[in-house]
Amino acid sequence: MLYDQSGTRQVEGKLGDDRPHQAKAQVAYAFPFGTTLSANEYFYSGVPGTTEMRFQGAPFFAFNRGDLGRTPNITQTDLQVYHDLRLGRFGVQLGAIVLNLFDQDKVLNVNPVYSTTPILIRDLSACGSGDVTVAACGAAANTPIIGGNTNNAARNAAQAAAFFRGFDAKRQRERQVALGGLVPSPTYGLPNAYQDPREVRVYVKFAF
After folding, report:
1. pLDDT of 99 above 70
2. Which residue in 70, 125, 197, 207 is a FRET match for 18, CA 20 to 30 A apart?
3. % the chain with pLDDT above 70
4. Element (H, E) at 8
5. Are residue 137 and residue 98 in the same domain, yes or no?
6. Are 141 and 170 in the same domain?
7. Is the pLDDT of residue 26 over 80?
8. Computed from CA positions of residues 84, 90, 96, 99, in that sequence, does the dihedral angle turn out positive or negative?
9. Is the per-residue pLDDT at 38 higher than 70?
10. Could you give the CA distance from residue 112 to residue 63 in angstroms, rounded to a whole number?
11. Mean pLDDT in the chain?
C-alpha cells in the first residue's frame, strides 16, 4: 500500500536499494620477473531500512520510508597476485585471489518485517493516551475491533475506512501484541545479511 499510518500521506523517501555514494579504485603493478600484483578497493553507502507491517494482507510502511536508519557504509579490499611462466611453447599462470582481504563483516541489511500477521485496527479510546497493555486498558472487549470480530466484507470496509482516517500504528500493534493476536518477529530490526567472509582462491591457467 502506498500510504503510511496517516491514511492520507503517500509513502515517500529513499528506496531500499538507495546508495548515494559508490566508488571503486584499482591499482596494479607488474614486476619485471613476471609477477603481477593488483588490488581493488570498493566503497559504497549503506541502504535505508523501512518497517514493513501488514494490513488486510497487504504490506505497508506505517512510519514512511527510512525509519530504521541506514546500514553502515561498506568498504572492501580484494587482492590478486599471479605469476606467468613459459614451458616451451606453453604458458602457465599461477595465481591467487583474496576477496575481502581484511575480513570485514559490516551489516548489509536488516530484517524490516515487524510481523507477517495483519494488524486489526481497534477502538483505543478506553486506553486514553496511556499504555495499551491489558493492565492499563483491560480485556479485549474494552478495545473492540472496528467492524466487529467476524471477518467479513463489512468489517473489511470498516477497517479500510479506519485506515484512511489515520491511526497510531505503534499503539495499535502494541495492543494487538498485548492481546496475543500478533506475534512480532524476533529478528525485526536486526541484521540478516553481512559481508561475505574472507575467501582465498588459487588457480592454475594453461595457455596453449
Report:
1. yes
2. 197
3. 100
4. none
5. no
6. yes
7. yes
8. positive
9. yes
10. 12
11. 93
Residue of 176, 175, 168 whose CA lies nearest to 7: 168
Number of domains in the chain: 2
- The pLDDT, as a whole number, for residue 11 is 86
Inform me whether the pLDDT recorded for 8 exceeds 80: no
pLDDT of 3 > 90? The answer is no
Q: In angstroms, rounded to a whole number, what is the distance separating the alpha carbons of residues 170 and 132?
A: 10
Is the pLDDT score of 208 beyond 90? no
pLDDT higher than 70, residue 1: no
Q: Which of 172, 182, 128, 170 is nearest to 146 (CA)?
A: 172
- The answer to whether 59 touches 1, Cβ cutoff 8 Å, is yes
Rounded to the nearest 5 degrees, what angle is found at the Cα of 15, between the Cα atoms of 170 and 115? 35
Environment class of 101 (CB within 10 Å of its CB; exposed 0-12, middle 13-18, buried 19+): middle
140 in the same domain as 201 = no
- Nearest alpha-carbon partner for 196 in 78, 94, 85: 78
CA distance 98 to 70: 28
Name residue, grid cell 495492543: 175
Residues 31 and 104 in one domain: yes
Residue type, 147: G
CA distance 91 to 93: 7
CB atoms within 10 A of CB 142: 15
What is the Cα–Cα distance from 105 to 101, expressed in whole angstroms? 11
Whether residue 179 is found in the same domain as residue 86: no
